Amino acid sequence: MTLLHFEDFRAGQVYDCGAHEITKDEIVDFARAFDPQPQHLDEDAGQRSLLGGLAASGWQVCAIGMRLFADGLILKSANKGGSRVQECRWMKPVKPGDRLRLDAHVVETNISRSRPDVGFVTFEWRIYNQVEQVASVILTPILGRREPGGA
Amino acid sequence: MTLLHFEDFRAGQVYDCGAHEITKDEIVDFARAFDPQPQHLDEDAGQRSLLGGLAASGWQVCAIGMRLFADGLILKSANKGGSRVQECRWMKPVKPGDRLRLDAHVVETNISRSRPDVGFVTFEWRIYNQVEQVASVILTPILGRREPGGA
What we know:
2 copies of one chain form a homodimer. The first copy, chain A, is α+β, with helices and mostly antiparallel strands. Chain A has one domain (about 5-145): Thiol Ester Dehydrase, Chain A (Roll), CATH 3.10.129. In chain A, about 20% of the residues lie in helices and about 35% in strands. Chain A has 3 helices and 5 strands; from the N terminus they run E-H-H-H-E-E-E-E. The first copy, chain A, has helices spanning about 25-35, 45-50, 60-70, and strands spanning about 15-20, 80-90, 100-110, 120-130, 135-145. Chain A has a 5-stranded antiparallel sheet with strand order 1-3-4-5-2, with helices on one face. Chain A is elongated and about 60 Å long. The two termini of chain A are about 25 Å apart. The interface of A and B includes residues 36, 37, 58, 59 and 71 of A.
């Protein structure tokens, strides 16, 4: 398999990274481990919260986004890792049975000034449920260059 | 227990949110579920990566940060949930046996223009291992006001 390199990415490209249907057990298990706020653990508490029902931790939405991004793009690339997230917005509650789908939009690409063998590709993840966008995450993985030092 | 409300927070405050020692099994289990990049799954692959050894997914560092923040502050507050993360920086690799400690710094506080019963408190999480800072996360939970509509 030919790995995607820095040079393969252009602003405006969109990668379909597939989907994952989230279950109630997944929501509660993640919340018990990492975000034990009542609205992530219990339906009644969720109903009393701004979320309007049991809903996933925003950090779980990010983690599922990472899994889709990994399977759909990063594991097929000369990825060197990531160092920062510029923004993460949780726009709508994610509820049991929601099918989360991720599109990765290329925002911009920049070569590294200090390392001729890598470049930075900034992506915006747009995560959707069945009917609307639920989250946006902007982050910049480091990608290997096919032609180190090239223009 | 008296819950912390919006009025209790002031820029410059620092809340010690405790610590969690991360194990190799935790790192590999999280990576299998959410971030199956080789450097998060395997010591040899980690050695060959920029991380210099098996190291945790940055998203796991955030999730552990959320757990410490929840136990140390949010579950003791009139929290209404969060809606955005302004920045997340992963500064150093997190390795098996690292003891992650979180300080939550209050950056700024703002009342809501549209809802007199809540306000926004922006925190910077500073996450440390035994010797240095490994991550920084800036985020803004929504906190209930003790005196809705007050000055």
